[in-house]
C-alpha cells in the first residue's frame, strides 16, 4: 500500500489516465467500431437486395424508361456500396483508435504502478571493484519519519572497513547527536544486514 505522499504524487498521472479512458467497453452497443461494422453489413444487404429487385423487374421491362430505371438502379446500388465501404473504413479506424486508447490507458497504469513501487523506497548505489555502497531511504511504516539504511561492501578489507565505518559513525554522532543503534538491538527485517540510524 503506497504512502499518502506517494499517492499524492501519483494522483496527476491517475487524472490523465482517467481523461484518456479505458478505450471502448466490451458492450457492442457502445462500441462505434461494432456499430459501424453493423451499418456496413446493413448497407451491403440493402445494395444486394436493390440489385436483385432490379434484375427481377428488368426482365419484364424494356424501352427508354427501362434504360433510365436501370441507370438509376445501378447508380443507387453503387452509392450504397460506397457508403458501406466508408462505414467499413470508419469502423477500422474507430477500432484502431480504441486499441490505441486502451494501450495508452494500460501504459499509464504501468507507469503509476512502477512509480508507486519505486517511490516507496529510494535506492542509491555506487562504487568500484573494491567497494560498493547502497543507500536505501524509505518512509517508516509505523511512524512519521524516514528510515535510512547504508550498506557498504568491501572486497577483502573487512577490518579496515569496520574501523572506518566506526569513525564515520562517531563523526555523525558528534554532528547530529548520539542516536546510534547497535546491531544487536536494531530491528531486523527492514533491510537485510542494515543498521537503523
TrEMBL record:
<feature type="domain" description="Alpha-D-phosphohexomutase C-terminal">
    <location>
        <begin position="131"/>
        <end position="167"/>
    </location>
</feature>
<protein>
    <recommendedName>
        <fullName>Alpha-D-phosphohexomutase C-terminal domain-containing protein</fullName>
    </recommendedName>
</protein>
<dbReference type="InterPro" id="IPR005843">
    <property type="entry name" value="A-D-PHexomutase_C"/>
</dbReference>
<dbReference type="GO" id="GO:0016868">
    <property type="term" value="F:intramolecular phosphotransferase activity"/>
</dbReference>
<dbReference type="Pfam" id="PF00408">
    <property type="entry name" value="PGM_PMM_IV"/>
</dbReference>
<feature type="region of interest" description="Disordered">
    <location>
        <begin position="177"/>
        <end position="197"/>
    </location>
</feature>
<dbReference type="InterPro" id="IPR036900">
    <property type="entry name" value="A-D-PHexomutase_C_sf"/>
</dbReference>
Amino acid at each position: 500500500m503506497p504512502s499518502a505522499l506517494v499517492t499524492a504524487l501519483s494522483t496527476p498521472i491517475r487524472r490523465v489516465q482517467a481523461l484518456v479512458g479505458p478505450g471502448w467497453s466490451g458492450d457492442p452497443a457502445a462500441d462505434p467500431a461494432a456499430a459501424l461494422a453493423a451499418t456496413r453489413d446493413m448497407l451491403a444487404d440493402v445494395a444486394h437486395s436493390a440489385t436483385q429487385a432490379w434484375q427481377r423487374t428488368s426482365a419484364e421491362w424494356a424501352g427508354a424508361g427501362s434504360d433510365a430505371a436501370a441507370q438509376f438502379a445501378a447508380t443507387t446500388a453503387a452509392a450504397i456500396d460506397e457508403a458501406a465501404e466508408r462505414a467499413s473504413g470508419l469502423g477500422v479506424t474507430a477500432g484502431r483508435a480504441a486499441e490505441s486508447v486502451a494501450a495508452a490507458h494500460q501504459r499509464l497504469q504501468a507507469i503509476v504502478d512502477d512509480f508507486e513501487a519505486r517511490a516507496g523506497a529510494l535506492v542509491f548505489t555506487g562504487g568500484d571493484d573494491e567497494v560498493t555502497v547502497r543507500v536505501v531511504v524509505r518512509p517508516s511504516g509505523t511512524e512519521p519519519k524516514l528510515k535510512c539504511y547504508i550498506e557498504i561492501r568491501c572486497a577483502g578489507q573487512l577490518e579496515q572497513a569496520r574501523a572506518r565505518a566506526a569513525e564515520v559513525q562517531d563523526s555523525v554522532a558528534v554532528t547530529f547527536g548520539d542516536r546510534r543503534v547497535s546491531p544487536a538491538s536494531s530491528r531486523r527485517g527492514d533491510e537485510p544486514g542494515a543498521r537503523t540510524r
